[in-house]
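Request: Show me your protein:
***
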Amino acid sequence: MSQKKDDPEVMAQMDRWLAAVSAELDLNPDLIGTHQKALLDLIATVAHGPSRPGAPLTAFLVGYAAGSTGADPSALADRIHERARNFS
């Protein structure tokens, strides 16, 4: 049985996982919720466009850039999302 993209059970499991990771890394658990849509949209576009294996690494780079520069992660994700849509 295949799972739907935004299956509530799958999304709930993701939320539990991200809460656990946030706790392990001593991060505010609300942080991911603020940027979740922009990051998931970016990852989907990269995975189905420029590079499937590059999708999680792209998310890492966006997060690293946000942490290093203090830039808004959603704004960075949107910027890279646009680049991914036009990548050839």
Summary: The helical segments are 8-24, 30-47, 54-69, 73-85. The radius of gyration is 14 Å.
